[in-house]
Design brief:
binds nicotinamide-adenine-dinucleotide, four-stranded mixed β-sheet, Rossmann fold, seven-stranded parallel β-sheet, binds magnesium ion, Rna Polymerase Sigma Factor, Chain: A, globular, alpha/beta
Length: about 400
């Protein structure tokens, strides 16, 4: 078997580490051609020693030379590159078969788009790319024959629960709607009064999943589910009315598809991202992921609730920008990134994250059919507006 050649964008993050864990179990199937990270250079060095990629991309030029020196001393020929252009370069390398898009936030959009335009098999973890530029992104997928496979556990579950030949026509496939499950995060039952003073570490202590800090805060506000609603709209060509959210605290059912005849098809498993990663890497085959089999008697109960839009205003904001369309999702995403970063820095109270996003949406001019430069401009403007708001909040 010829080995699949991989580029892993965001190799040093939570999804990146899980991806390399699965890859390392199948040296006969996968070969890492390039990996990228922002500033965890020691981790990158170890990853290079283990996987011997041809290219490694660091975030900052200042880190390139020292890493190169360490690699040469270790007898490795890996070429070290730096910066956003290099990310796009390794995402589109002619020899690469599949690209894991696991950079967090808007920074992931340009290299993910480069992989799409190069017609790669794209394993999409970076939901922010689809939230910002869903219409354009999907048009490029079609135009370049890229194969898009969802890594987000909910979307991977929906993908597995839809007919194998599903091509974006819900009505023709007998699909009534989908149900995205949400754990409700660490604050599902926390007294509302307490939410005023919760700390970044409390917000990042997710009950079921171990993830990067940005997405962990998004889970605590349920903005993560909001972003996933928008992501599902584009991945599966659904209307907002065809996407429901259900709280399921155990995170065992990863999502469901309701068919018109009453059938509901779901994917279940232990909450470990190596399952959707292995699924997408091997699709349509199956490979071992390292995840333990599901033991239902140990789990014993599966619970469900309706989401509380008052406790989680970010979820409502996401539905609002989905219905508005245009540049609104990009503005929401940018304002959220700024507000979450300020919260993680200890500068912004938890409950003000939604307020900053609402105020930013009110201030950035709406554009109905932005092209990619206009989306990136809306992203920049929303960051400026949201940062100003955060600073004024503090003053
Ligand atoms: P993380 O913070 O653990 O890792 C992010 C990666 O992106 C790191 O390798 C980091 O070096 C890189 N990065 C960050 N900023 C960068 C920049 N400006 N330029 C280049 N590289 C940069 O995040 P994560 O939890 O692994 O999440 C990655 C993506 O996957 C996110 O979009 C997230 O929403 C999505 N996702 C994550 C999970 C999960 O379980 N962690 C589940 C579903 C979806
Ligand atoms: Mg998810």
């Amino acid at each position: 078997m010829t080995r699949q050649k991989l580029t892993i964008l965001g190799a040093t993050g939570s999804i990146g580490l899980s991806t390399l864990d699965v890859v390392a179990r199948h040296p006969d199937r996968y070969e890492v051609l390039a990996l990228t990270g922002n500033n965890r250079v020691d981790v990158m060095f170890e990853q290079c020693v283990q996987h011997r990629p041809r290219h490694a991309v660091v975030g900052h030029e200042r880190d390139a030379e020292p890493l190169t020196a360490r690699l040469r001393a270790a007898g490795l020929a890996t070429e070290v590159l730096a910066g956003p252009q290099a990310l796009e370069f390794v995402a589109a390398l002619p020899e690469v078969d599949a690209v894991m898009a696991a950079i967090v936030g808007a920074a992931g959009l340009p290299p993910t788009m480069a992989a799409v335009r190069a017609g790669k098999r794209v394993l999409l973890a970076n939901k922010e790319a689809l939230v910002m530029a869903g219409a354009l992104f999907m048009a490029e997928v079609r135009a370049h024959g890229a194969v898009l496979l969802p890594i987000d556990s909910e979307h991977n579950a929906v993908f597995q629960s839809l007919p194998a030949d599903y091509a974006g026509d819900a009505a023709n496939s007998g699909v009534s709607h989908i149900l995205l499950t949400a754990s409700g995060g660490p604050f599902r039952t926390t007294p509302l009064e307490r939410l005023k003073t919760v700390t970044p570490d409390e917000a990042c202590a997710h009950p079921n999943w171990s993830m990067g800090r940005k997405i962990s805060v998004d889970s605590a506000t349920m903005m993560n589910k909001g972003l996933e609603v928008i992501e599902a709209r584009w991945l599966f060509n659904l209307t907002p009315e065809q996407i429901q959210v259900v709280i399921h605290p155990q995170s065992v059912i990863h999502s469901l598809v309701q068919y018109v005849d009453g059938s509901v098809v779901a994917e279940l498993g232990n909450p470990d991202m190596r399952t959707p990663i292995a699924h997408a890497l091997a699709w349509p085959d199956r490979v071992v992921s390292g995840v333990a089999p599901l033991d239902l008697p140990t789990i014993a109960h599966l619970d469900f609730e309706r989401p509380d839009f008052e406790r989680f205003p970010c979820l409502g904001l996401a539905f609002r920008v989905l219905r508005a369309g245009g540049n609104a999702p990009a503005v929401l995403n940018a304002a959220n990134e700024i507000a979450v970063a300020a919260f993680l820095d200890g500068k912004l109270p938890f409950l003000d994250i939604a307020r900053i996003i609402t105020a930013t949406l009110d201030r950035v001019v709406f554009a109905e059919t932005p092209d990619l430069p206009a989306i990136l401009a809306a992203d920049v403007e929303a960051r400026t507006v949201a940062s100003d708001l955060v600073n004024r909040w503090l003053a």
